[in-house]
Design a protein that fits this description.
The strands form 2 sheets. The protein has a 7-stranded mixed sheet, sandwiched between helices. A two-stranded antiparallel ribbon has the order 1-2. It is 34% helix and 23% strand. It is an alpha/beta fold and 236 residues long. The longest helix is centred in the middle third of the chain and has 14 residues. The two termini are 24 Å apart. The chain is built from 9 helices and 9 strands. Helix 1 crosses helix 5 and helix 4 runs parallel beside helix 5.
Length: 236
């Protein structure tokens, strides 16, 4: 995401909330990118999508879930396998992760997952119509722990406002992090937004939702003594 910020002179400039990491592909990831992308990959259109865009890509209608920053795709694959009626769209800029997710879709025979290799937040207005999304999930985004990097954090007032435009009333925003200061930041930003309501109650973190599986990244953080915090907010 390119976040608008002001410099010391009051000029606005764009700051990315992610670092582009192409990485080295394994043979399996490379094969999946070549063979599976034509079936499950979705290019970001130049213009806002028509109402039938996603039903045409999936071949049917269903509640749409967008996961931003799916890493290597483990949690997204598990959630899609457990809820076949729901339609999942994974968006990430990390090419090896995209290859791994495509390989997992093929291996599990899933038909309810599509993949976008792009900055989903910048492309949000072109990917989804207003109120089209049923759920957005963002698990373990980069916490940018140093204070001078806080402006790069994904969860910002402008971002949650943009998401609110694309999520239906009553739809959900699910987040998780193993960096407690970032969890507190998320809680503050979201509770300051008039578009979102804390499902767990004001000032309270949520229990881990039953549908969110524990990932390898999460287990590694727990092994290091990190504390995981979940947040679930509903679109007013």
């Amino acid at each position: 995401m390119n976040l608008p910020v002001e410099d010391g002179a009051g000029h606005r400039r764009e700051v990315r909330s992610f670092v582009l990491r192409t990485g080295r592909l394994t043979p399996g990831q490379a094969r999946a990118l070549e063979a599976a992308w034509p079936r499950y990959g979705v290019e970001v259109p130049d213009e806002p999508v028509a109402e039938t865009f996603w039903s045409e890509r999936f071949g049917r209608q269903g509640p749409l879930t967008l996961e931003i920053g799916f890493g290597m795709g483990q949690s997204l694959l598990a959630m899609a396998a457990a809820d076949p009626e729901r339609l999942f769209i994974g968006a990430d800029v990390h090419t090896p992760g995209v290859g791994a997710l495509l390989a997992g879709i093929e291996a599990r025979g899933l038909r309810n997952v599509r993949v976008v290799c792009a900055d989903a937040v910048a492309a949000l207005p072109r990917l989804f119509a207003p109120g089209e999304l049923d759920r957005v999930q963002i698990f373990f985004p980069d916490p940018w722990p140093k204070k001078r990097h806080h402006k790069r954090r994904l969860i910002q007032p402008a971002f949650v406002a943009a998401l609110a435009e694309r999520v239906r009333p009553g739809g959900a925003l699910m987040l998780a992090t193993d960096w407690v200061p970032y969890a507190e930041w998320m809680l503050e930003v979201l509770e300051a937004s008039p578009a979102w309501r804390n499902q767990a109650g004001a000032g309270t973190f949520a229990d881990r939702p039953a549908q969110r599986p524990e990932t390898r990244f999460e287990r590694r953080g727990l092994d290091r003594g990190h504390e995981v915090r979940d947040l679930v907010f509903l679109r007013r």
